[in-house]
Fold each of these.
Amino acid sequence: MTSSFSNKEELLNVMDAWYVSELLQPPRLATEKRKCIKILPGSLEPWADPKYARREDERAVWWFLCLGALSLRTATRKLLQKFREEMYEERVSSADGKIPLALIVLDERGRPDLEQIFISTFPWAYSLVLHDRLHDLKNFQKVEQTLKQNILQHLRPDPSHGSPTPLTVQEVLHLTDKLTRSICLPKEDAHQVKPFALRIPQRRNEPPEVDMLNSFFLEDLSTVRKALERENIGLALARYLYGLDPAERRDVVKDRTVLREILAPGRTPKSRWPGRNRPSLSLMQQCAVNHAARELGKSGMASVNGPPGTGKTTMLRDLVAKVVLDRAVVLAAFDHPEAAFRSPKRVPIRERIATIYRVDPALLGFEMVVASSNNQAVENISRQLPLCQEIADDFDPPIRYFASIADRLTVKQEDGMTWGLAAAVLGNKDNRRDFVERFWWEQERGMKHYLQAVGSPKDGADLPAVAVIEQAPKDQNEALTRWHTARANFRNSLERVTNLLHTLELAREALEQKEANRMDVHQTAEAAKKARLIQQQQEEKFAEAERLWKEAAERTAAAADDRKALLALRPNFFARLFSTNAYRHWQQRAEEALAAVSIAREEEKRYKEQRDRAQKEVEQARTQCERAEKERENALRRMQEIEEKIDRGRQLAGDCFADPDFWQQSEKDLERSTPWLGPDIQRARDELFKRAFELHRAFVDAAAKPLHANLGTMMAVLRTKSLHPDLTTLLRHLWASFFLVVPVVSTTFASFGRLFSGLGKEEIGWLFIDEAGQATPQSAVGALWRCRRAVVVGDPMQIEPVVTTPLPLIEALFKQFGVDPGQWAAPWISVQTLADRGSWLGTSLMGEGEPIWVGCPLRVHRRCDEPMFSISNQIAYNGLMVFATPPERPCRTGQVLGETRWIDVKGENIDGKWSPPEGERSAELLLIAVERRLQDGLQPCVPNDIFFITPFRQVAFKLRDHLRAALADCQKRHQIPLFSSEEELNEWFERQIGTIHTFQGKEAEAVILVLGAPGKQSLGARYWAGKSPNLLNVAVTRAKQRLYVIGDFSAWKSIPYFSTLSKSLGGPSH
């Protein structure tokens, strides 16, 4: 991107601050499922110990040699001593675990892999911070190379083979000691640093991936900083970093003009996601879809504000449908699908030579990735899209797109679960490995076997089950016949939707023109009337002029006749000669007659000129009258055409016809409606969605051979850490082939860089960021750099990003680079915050100080009953949300536990945040629910539709113990197991009980909010919970139908935002 960036230097400092802050984010090496084998003086090397030798079921064994390990708990305690933060333990989960100073990958015999030496950032940065050397943190990359070289110097090569020899215990201890001194660890920490090893069995004979050692974002931040320095970033990332001038903002809530423009049928995608029962989007959902579709035509970023229960996923599904359709339009241009694959190239990968085809450039840019820092959020979307329950069930025949393969990708792997292969859960290596095994290699349902059967059929060979189930074409000719049929059906459906939307767009334009044209009709009618009057006046004037002229002509003729007669009486020659009296008298009369003729002729001439002028004026008046009449007729014709366009649009749109009356509805009715898109057009859009997937399916069948080659290589890429250089240049084409078959992929930001390693600037078509309010601003930088278009969805009024670094230290780090942490650092700033800054379309929410500008807001809330809805709407959204929760939903919890209320539990004399009486009341409610389920014979005995949540970690820990004891007593009393296993019990406690922070994105029929912190000495904790509306907003909106607040009413009623809660619940009950 070329542009004259005015504040590039500031942003380079921001990138440096982000990078340095990530050095102190301590991802921990996954040791909980692996035995840490200590390496002590005099002990046997683990890789030489027979008890750790490779077993029969293992293809290979590798070792992670950890050169010392820093205690995260100890390090955190020291950082907090230096940078004090009172409520740190509530903001961050308990810091624990080991952080290696460095890690070396060893083979089965203990020989180091010289390409896999990793230096941990946290211990090095931690040491600098303790020594007040914050300014040196930016030098990590240089220091890393030096530390690696120091290690390499001590790894002895085998003289005979030139490869390293197995490490000894003495060498490991020496390396650990030298590294500890190199990074200047404090003595008390250095004494605790002991090396250990992790045994890593592998199913393939290849080195394992090293993860969870350093921040996942360091490499991307470094790469993007260099790109920023060269001004080589795409529009999406530029908009994210540079933002927009506030003067460019348009408030879509207050400005109906911009809203109408965006919702125009001509801006509406031709396809949509046909959900179960085919519901339409709400007004602002459709606005967000149209805005993203138009704004991101070629590149860019759009921001969407999604309060709880407003249908973020529903909105994103329509964008998925739009992108699938866009690619289908390109697919339909190929007479033969194989023509979309060209220039095959042979490239070594793993243990074979792969053939890779380049994809036609027109098919690049349709890749869709859903990303978030919240693993559950992204998996929810990608696991939901393929499910039958997410698609209309009244298609005849039903929509099916490789459903038998998609069934194998579900958690339960049951047949009939899915409608199609719409999405894949990728990201971390376990997800990638699981996907590859199920999608590609699965013996009965793998895509590999399907494409082989279609692309290279063997005479007489039995078809694999997947080919039979999917009714694969028997040969290439049948595949091409199906292709041409699918293409014709698609084009017909596309033409129909195009025509329908065009009809609606003409109607919309006609409505806009109607008032102006009505005025035009009135004005032309008045003009014609005036012209007729002028014509009449001119004709009367002409008639008068003609009468006067004729009279003058008659007088001229009379005068001439008189003179002629007089001339006939002229005296004779002698009278003239002698000038007699008679002659002189006649001569006088003759002169008078001549003068009279002259005067008459002059008068006639004057009247004739007047008559001629009047005649011209009449002709002009007639012409003007004819013109005015024609303009009046044209205006009437245009009005008739306008009325006809409006009538056609009205017939097509029905109640959705967006005439002036439509926009005059009450706000509640308007927000719940969708302008223009009536049942007929929605059905047509649904049908086009189906035809688009049918076209994709037929394309895959007809291009099975090149797709089999590319997908086979892509599966190896998903399992391989390092790539051949030739393969890197073709990686985009492999991904495009993959996304052609599987339209949507999900991943966390943490796995994004590794998953899409090798892809560069704007080489991913679409990025959908979910729960962006929870993500640190730097976590999305690499993803935004790689994408061409980004739709950022989140809510700054819910849970903020979690960072493990003490806040005073974050402030110090950013100020070291001259960067305002309040503008660029988490937890104050999130991905959503920066995306909102770069959005010209949105609205303002009243924050604690200045108004908060958010992206295009979704407003219709369909999750919570009252009073939860109104509490949230009042404390966080200034009444922006519109209530649309379905009425009269059955609520079993309400039948058992009663109505929503505040259960007052006094605790003014209790020290700490945990209140045992509150625990007792919580246990009572749980046991009442369990007892009723036991009476009714319901399974499971312990309800899954009640959450126990709290603002405080200490309360959550104690509450789990308290409820566990209560359930144990209940089980003992009834002599009935409440859970089938200890694992199921632990899962229930992990799933149903916790802090508010851990429950964003979840919902339950009922929520029991255990407040804790009732005592006087806990006033600070209470004010911490109420410092912003975010925490309470998330808490109350987890509850769909019932909310039970347990806490000291008098202690909490005056706390900001909780005061609204206390008033809404009508006071305490007991």
Amino acid sequence: MAQHGVIFDKYDGKEDIESYFERLELFFTVNETDNGKKVPILLSSLGSEAYGVLKDLLSPAAPSTKSLAQLKAALKAHYKPAPPLIALRFAFMNSRKATDESMNDYLLRLRKLASQCQFGTFLDDALLLAFVCGLPMNGSIQRRLLGETTLALANAVSIANAMEMAKLSDSGEQNVTEAEGSKEHTEQEEVKLIRRQKGKSQSRSNVRCWCCGEQGHVKTDCKYKDQSCNNCGIKGHLRKVCRGQKEVKHVQNYSHGNQDFDDDRLVFRVQRGQGGAYVVNMKVNGENIVMEIDTGSAVSLLSEQQWCSLFPKIKLQQYTGKPLRSYTGDAIEVKGETTAEVEYNSVKYKMPLVVVSGSYRPALIGRDWLAHIRLDWIMVSQIKQDDDSPDDDLWDVFRPGVGTVKGFTANIELKDGANPVFCKARPVAYALRDKVGHELDRMVGEGSWQPVKYSKWASAIVVVPKPNGSIRICGDYKATVNPQIKSHSHPIPCIEDILAGLSGNKIFTKLDLSQAYQQLELEEASKEVLTINTHKGLFRPTRLPYGVSTAPAQFQCVMEQVLNGLPVSIYLDDVLIGSKTKVEHEKMVDQVMKRLEEHGVRLKKEKCEFSKTELVYLGHKINGTGILPTDEKVRAINDVKIPKDIQELRSFIGMVNFYGKFIPNMSTLLAPLYSLLSDEEKESEKWGWNQTCTDAFNECKRLLTSKAVLVHYDQHVPIKLSCDASSYGVGAVLSHVVDSGERPVAYASRTLSSAEGNYSQVEKEALALIFGVKKFHKYLYGRTFTLVTDHKSLLALLGPKSDIPTLAAARMQRWALTLAAYDYQVEFRAGREHGNADMLSRLPVDQVKSVEVDVPEINSMIGNLPVCADEIARETRVDRVLTKVMLCVMEGWPKVCQDVDLQKYHQVREYLSVDQGCLVFGFRVVIPESLRDRMLEELHETHCGVVKMKAVARSFVWWPGLDKDVESWVRNCDACASYKDSPPSAPLRPWPWAERPMQRVHVDFGDFQGTQLLVMVDVHSKWIEAVQMHSTTTSATVNVLRRFMASFGVIEELVSDNGPQFTSKEFAMFCRQNGIRHTLVAPYHGASNGAAERAVGVVKTSLSKMKGYRMSVALANILMRYRMTPHATTGMRPDELFLKRQIRSRLSLIRPSLMDIVEKSQAVQKYHHDNSKPLMSFTLDERVFVKDGRGGDPKWMEGRIVSVKGTHTYLVRVNGRIRYCHVEHLQKANQNEEHLQTANQSPCLDGTRLPQPAAALPIRPATQTTSAVPNTENTMVDYAISPSPRVESLPLRQSSRTTHEPKRFSDQDWSM
């Protein structure tokens, strides 16, 4: 064909079609052909055969009606069909360098093969991998390249060319090619051999070919001369005549410095120039492990940490091989070796595996595995291509720990007129108190919290146990701070605006921040508002804590300022980076990383995704073609299975009716399904589901997921989340509230796990709320929404203004804490109006994995008691009442309970749950009736009183009427009844409150069955110390006190009676040397030292009850139980106040109290005591009668007041001696005088007068018998006072009144 003098050949079908098209385009360019003429020129240039083929391909359309591109595509598809991609890549990866091929020609051939493999950005890595693998096995060039720690393609080709030229130069022949790993004869050797054979007159038939091993021909005539060896890979001979090593076990030794290492035990990692190592998924002993391919390692390795975590029960054998060294020459410690079962591509192998020490080493596939396992190199390449995450060592943003955003702080702005709210510390379960203390110490140590002594604001805490045994402490700001905080004005970005800015991008990276809010420090003025109150005191946060309502908006504002100027998308703690090219994307990621690193932000690497062509962000699938909806939104509808019974069918129809206003011809559509609900069908035993019902069912599902019903998520439209639960599933519907009703945005459902199936009904309904909130977190977080449920009790348990329930099960507390981070309202909707969520819960899709597995709680509370959890669960199953209760807990309680036995349980139904077959009331176990006596016996083991026994019981167990049963048990206890104390009868004067331990200690001796006990009690904590004494001398007493103070510190004030041990000079010296203030109480008045007297009584009474025990064992048990039992006065345990911790015991006991409880208790005791008997007072020189404290005869002696020392103590002269007396030992002389006389002597019926008082005796000054200073106000010290001649005698005043006989003794009276 000619145009402007140029002739163009016709296409005959033999020429390569692409080459023909290239020449044709040149023809068009040279001749400046118009576009309208190109199609006719192409058709006229085709030969008859080619034109016929084209016409058949396009039939029935005519070729002239198609465009030039369509015609080219049709011809190319016919004459040069594209081979399968996998076949092209297979040919590429299995190509080998020929012996007569130069390095440049070899690379050129690889490039030509790779041009059709669609490697994309992986092209250079694929060429490098094929180039090195295709070199002769174990050749010097290949070994040299494998020894490079970082290797690029250009560098590899340069090294190979240099080594090839060096070998050719050494041999003196420029055309000699490399033939390594084989000792076969060259062509020249073979010719020489033939000549020698001819010289010996041997026939050609005896000549053996060195190429195939057969006789009768030479290599030049062999048909296998171009065949590559399967052993060494060199072209020119077969494997059976290969003189190379059959199995490559040793390679050339490397020299490192002055040391030589055996390369068979050399371990190092081969990495590509700009990335990490090549990895492959292997199944080892049934576990999937990602292993790096390391052709430089002779053995396959696994780290000790990974081995112990995956195979803890498999024992390692002793390693018998050669020592392992890294490529740098460092020795590698080997822990052992084993024979592992390895599976790859459904093929199983028995392979050796070496375990080395350390946790940082990657799992390596060495040459021992590569020799037997044929890897799919295409898959290896694909895996490597997706692994573009940056190295942890390159960026500080991946370092563990909590970051700190530099240059920004969070503040809490209160509404006008906001009033501080101070909540008391909530009681913490005693099983968790130690963990709470340790966690608070840890948070204070890391600087996120700081202790304070005073705060106007205080919120209670919630302690949430984690599945791993640790706990999390959070503030409950729902009812304290959040209602009084001003809303933050910074808007949360609209998802549609974020997605619109991603158009045109091809490569994406998503970054997730670690502990996002915790990285933002608080302003000083805001710390007080977020103070928390714990049993260890007040703590203020230094960082923005979890649960503050304005936290999302503040954090969004900070992140936008941190990344200001960078083209990224930010939604709270998620950052999205999109770019059009890989180079641009890597540059952008580096800029973002540097900016985050400069501001101290930390990322959670396991949740980040780098350099992806497709990922899911904010519920949308993003790729190079645009924004696509995810299947997750409608999966709950699309995967709904056909109903199996009437109930499931009713649920499905209920959901269709819920959105019926948006579904056209709904009645006609549902007619086949309604027919199954007819009375005839319900009464029949056969389930009449047919194909018509299936078609209607599928059409309903299609409409529910169509645009007629579903709407797109809109940031500015009110949103509702409807949730429901059945006995086997949970469901949730996210809906927009529009004028026409609720329009669904997305659906979600799943089945319950076996553990979740045992939850109570209220817990299942709460689980449905948590499932929906977590499922649609990206839609709900940071905005106000409404939760809809058909379980009314959840409005009180999980309401936005309700405190986090402390009596609920641990999982309910965790869920309440999860909801605390959201701004929501709870709405109740009757079940008949809740059809949309009800259907999803009754027809759930199969769950992928369980949402949550709770930590067992029963064993930690009662596993060590005589009644174990298994026995409680077993008895619960056969208990008549508890079986009904468990059924109601699992399936739901009726609104009105008519059963009398269940009414008491119905009142506390919100706090009942089931755990491991046991019924639980909060943290307390419900005991079946058959085990209650045994439990009461255990609680009353040491015969503690009613109050203490109730305190212990309320910490562990519960049943209706528990308090009454405890009272009855103690009342009927013979041991307790035999040793009841008499009620006090004397007025009381309380001691001042001791503010700290060891501030004042009371001490006294007690005798029990011939054994002396020294009892000490710390009045601040009521801590009792009792010691068996073999001697009661001063030295023995001092030794005991010295040991006591060596353990707990020096006593500030010691209170004792006037025993000889305490009044001796040795004891006074001991107190003076140790700075102890020694106070002596009034003689013969034990109430003044009541704390010690009471402690002695407690010890002796308890010892009397515990018969059958050795003294030392009984005393130890009594002290142990007393110290861990809350005291009636303080309301707290002695060990907590004395040691500031709880001692380890069989039981954990009662809640702590405050000091005002002690003062109130003392005031009540004083009030009742003092009002029962008025306090007598005496004047100076008043005549009185004094009680003989030594029990002499007479009991009362006459005396006279010499001095008034206080309201309760006086100096009285008795029989010539001055005595220091308490008011209880005095009586007025003019009160019932006749009765006192008859008490002192026999009655005088004959009118004989009483003897006159003796003459007055002089008084001498008192001599103090102790070094202590007497406290006249508290009457704690006695003085031994004797007469002194230096004091003038005071005569007794005689009465001048005439004494008459009593009338009742007259004669006339007796005459009757």
